[in-house]
UniProtKB/TrEMBL annotation:
InterPro entries: RNase_H-like (IPR053151), RNase_H-like_dom_plant (IPR044730), RNaseH-like_sf (IPR012337), RNaseH_domain (IPR002156), RNaseH_sf (IPR036397). The lineage of its organism: Eukaryota, Viridiplantae, Streptophyta, Embryophyta, Tracheophyta. Residues 1-21 form the signal peptide. Residues 52-173 form the RNase H type-1 domain. It comes from the Eukaryota. This is RNase H type-1 domain-containing protein. Keywords: Signal. It comes from Urochloa decumbens.
Length: 204
């Protein structure tokens, strides 16, 4: 993958978005929600799964973790994940959370996925509406770009924090996880109340 460097910016680089080529062609649908950001979690249509992802980076120590959740068209829990990723910026944590979510989709053969997060900058990067500046962000974007063509039917959208509480709950669990965790079918107790609120339309 060739990346064109526009100009140096201190210790950072202003780089082209490596995901832009992945959002056109080679898929039945690659929808990008360009409307207003949602305030509450919304169910996907039948036949699709929805991934909500989140990254957590503690301000003082910059210790970071990631998490995410897959749910079906009825709002039922399918899979959740959480893990520590060491020291990282918030943007690196968000991108790492998305990358892990896509890895799990590919591993499970899920080809129709609605992707949603509360970090608007990261969502805009995936939509090819923002450029990547930091080198570590660029590396993660390259890895995400390799995974996106394996998703045939993809939608990307932004949701406000209150609509992403389940993913945030998994990201918080990641801080205390000695090893990467994956939950299937049965969610951990720590996120149950948020799952119930979303299912009842009380995620605002």
């Amino acid at each position: 993958m060739l990346l064109r460097v526009h100009r140096p910016l201190g210790s950072m680089l202003l780089l082209c978005n490596p995901l832009s080529a992945c959002l056109v062609g080679g898929a039945r649908r690659r929808g990008l929600h360009h409307g207003e950001s949602a305030s509450a979690w919304r169910k996907p249509e039948a036949g699709r799964l929805k991934l909500n992802f989140d990254g957590s980076s503690k301000h003082a120590s910059r210790r970071a973790s990631i998490g995410g959740v897959y749910r079906d068209h009825e709002g039922a829990f399918v899979l959740g994940y959480a893990e520590r990723i060491g020291t990282a910026t918030s943007s690196v944590a968000e991108l790492a959370a998305l990358r892990r979510g896509l890895e799990l989709a590919v591993a499970n053969g899920w080809r129709s996925v609605w992707i949603e997060g509360d970090a608007k900058t990261v969502v805009d990067v995936v939509r090819s509406r923002a450029r990547v500046r930091a080198v570590e962000d660029l590396r993660l974007c390259g890895e995400i770009a390799e995974l996106l063509p394996m998703i045939d039917d993809m939608t990307v959208s932004h949701v406000r924090r209150q609509g992403n509480r389940v993913a945030h709950g998994f990201a918080k669990l990641g801080h205390g996880a000695a090893l990467p965790r994956v939950w299937r079918d049965v969610p951990p107790d720590e996120v149950l109340r948020f799952l119930q609120r979303d299912d009842q339309g009380q995620g605002k």
